[in-house]
């Protein structure tokens, strides 16, 4: 009892350090490079690159003309920034480049020129919905190596704010498109997370939406079971495999556990939820082509394709007299779709008038020439025996055929309509189309839901060991939860205004730290090849002779091994906390 009373009298936790230097709201904080550097971004577009051991800036530049939405590291020499100026940029920032960059903070209000790092890539993206990007390597790191593949995938909101586009770098190409979630009106995309399914090594995109929905989309990438020759060369179309609505307010942030078995969401309401990532279905087929992606990008073609059985094909006698496919296709392109109409069976028998076109769903003018498969045929027995050739045709002696022939001759026009299109169309592919799975998608219940009574928790991040998650709140508190039970285990308070960004340091051990040192040494050796060998040798001798380099390295290792929480707030300050 005395112990509990003594613990309640302990003073509240205090931050280990406060980083000052920004003059605007902090929107992004991230500890990078094996806990040796800190990246912070503010609402004015400034990026400050801090040295973690000395707490001093080593690079300061204005990366964007508007607010920073997110930052990330790519390897040991590249930094990715995402701004509200509709741009995603990748900068080259090596250790040898730091002395050449400015360390003057934005708070100094100096007019000195601040050189920028070398800009490698710049991608125009949609930032109207305040959604930051997410990045992962195309292939995860092997167990025997600490390195991942040099190719990365970047998920950003599409031009249609209800869709997501996945780009591949350094190729700068569109790799996949996540379509709308058709059964529900989810609203625009608010947050994304791209990660790997650990068992199948497939890439998944987890999304949170304005309507409180969250969904998991499986991309058609890294499919090793398919031959290289049969893999699509263009962007693939993602498939939605999980849908839930755990919130009644927009989803503000989400993150997945390191094993990719669970992910967590927070919202403008006071609810924090845990979701179990579904097991991959056995019947998933990713034979998507570029045309499927084009259809997904066109909102007018969101209705599933329905084509009647082959019973509507013309008789053999008519097919022999039909025009060649190339010529017929050329005539079809020049013909206006608005002139097409299908007479009903009863009208064909009694009258020669053409009924209204409401029985046929006409495609738009932007549809291609071979878009006959985009038309939903009425479920009526229609004999399509007309031809596009101007020469008269011979038909079997049937009342329906004679009526259709007399109609064509009476009007003095060529046979038109869907009958001529089907009779002259080139043979369709024998590949079985993928059955739409949108209708079978149901809203699932979250694995765990907790009412925290604290609305507006954002910037949710899961620690690299998967034991804790952190959120930044509108009430200026930093809250830490257990990922196993979603129990609140710590509340950190120092900021006076809302916390907009939060994050963890990476949990390192001596083995992983040794691997990181070896990798950094290899990179340093590669980077020093371009420099003068004499100056590089002098630098190594100075470090060996002075004991300051060894002492500095020991301090860096101590900082790397500790467990840190970093948070940025509306007051323009970044707090650093040591946790268990």
Verbal overview:
The protein is α+β, with helices and mostly antiparallel strands. It is 18% helix and 29% strand. It has 10 helices and 29 strands. Strands 10-11-12-13-17 form a 5-stranded mixed β-sheet, covered by helices on one side. A 4-stranded antiparallel β-sheet has the order 1-29-28-27, with no helix packed on it. Strand 3 and strand 4 (46-51) form a beta hairpin. The longest helix is centred in the last third of the chain and has 19 residues, at 510-528. Mean pLDDT is 75; it is low at 1-7, 285-291, 299-416, 431-439, 530-535 and 541-545. This is WD40 repeat-like protein. It comes from Lindgomyces ingoldianus.
* Percentage of residues assigned to helices: 10-25%
Oligomer: single chain
Count every beta strand, where a strand is a DSSP E run of 2 or more residues.
Answer: 29
In spatial order, strands of the major sheet run 10-11-12-13-17
Q: Regions with pLDDT < 50 over 5+ consecutive residues?
A: 1-7, 285-291, 299-416, 431-439, 530-535, 541-545
- Could you tell me the strand content as a percent range? 25-35%
Organism: Lindgomyces ingoldianus
Protein name: WD40 repeat-like protein
List the helices and strands and how they pair.
Blueprint: H1 2-8, E1 17-19, E2 26-32, E3 37-42, E4 46-51, E5 56-62, E6 68-74, E7 78-83, E8 87-92, E9 118-124, E10 134-137, E11 152-157, E12 164-169, E13 173-178, E14 189-196, E15 203-209, E16 214-218, E17 236-237, E18 239-244, E19 251-256, E20 262-267, E21 271-276, H2 290-297, H3 316-321, H4 325-334, H5 345-350, H6 399-411, H7 418-424, E22 448-451, E23 457-462, E24 468-473, E25 477-482, E26 488-493, E27 499-504, H8 510-528, H9 533-545, H10 548-561, E28 564-569, E29 574-578
Parallel strand pairs: 13-17
Antiparallel strand pairs: 1-29, 2-3, 3-4, 4-5, 6-7, 7-8, 8-9, 10-11, 11-12, 12-13, 14-15, 15-16, 16-18, 19-20, 20-21, 21-22, 23-24, 24-25, 25-26, 27-28, 28-29
